[in-house]
Design brief:
Blueprint: H1 2-28, H2 36-39, E1 51-57, E2 71-74, E3 77-81, E4 86-92, E5 95-102, E6 109-116, E7 121-129, E8 136-142, H3 144-151, E9 155-156
Parallel strand pairs: 1-7, 4-9
Antiparallel strand pairs: 1-4, 2-3, 2-5, 5-6, 7-8
């Protein structure tokens, strides 16, 4: 009976160590930058001749899709990486622009067209949707009222290509 209790205690300790190492390995490689609400005043003002696209991805429930970090393309050029709980922006010429995120597991990609005017800021939210095998990326334009309530606590990524 004493041997069983000792084995149970050791198994519990090993399980705790394993979970701790797993959490550390997932979050330990991540760099945490300043929050967007704290960085907002340091961001360069928008040039009146351009438009600004703010890309953001909220955190995921229970880390679902946490490791999925696909590239984000704007008009065929890579402009950043979709990271959980992060935000970055790109200033663009006025007109229509295509935002694309390639699918990692599923065939194809998700895309939306964004129309932007001089001096305008638009918000593009991307996220990992629930699916059978792995998360499937979603992308949508969000109105400024909704976006401003979702972005303040996100990590501001000044150099989104890294």
């Amino acid at each position: 009976m004493n041997i069983r209790r000792e084995f149970s205690q050791r198994a519990m300790i090993m399980a705790i160590v394993f979970v701790t190492l797993l959490i550390t390995s997932v979050t330990g490689c991540e760099t945490f930058g300043p929050k967007y609400d704290a960085s907002r005043s340091a961001i360069a003002p928008l040039n009146n001749e351009k438009g600004r696209i703010i890309f953001y991805r909220p955190g995921n429930f229970l880390w679902y899709g946490y490791t999925e970090r696909p590239a984000i393309f704007l008009d065929g050029q890579k402009v950043g990486i979709s990271r959980p709980s992060s935000i970055f922006y790109v200033d663009v010429e006025p007109g229509e622009h295509r935002v694309t995120i390639p699918a990692a597991v599923y065939a194809g990609q998700v895309s939306i067209d964004v129309q932007i005017s001089k001096g305008e800021t638009v918000y593009v939210k991307n996220n990992v949707g629930v699916s059978v095998f792995a998360g499937k990326m979603t992308i949508e334009m969000v109105d400024p009222g909704q976006a401003t309530t979702e972005i303040d606590g996100l990590e501001f990524v000044a150099y989104p290509m890294h």
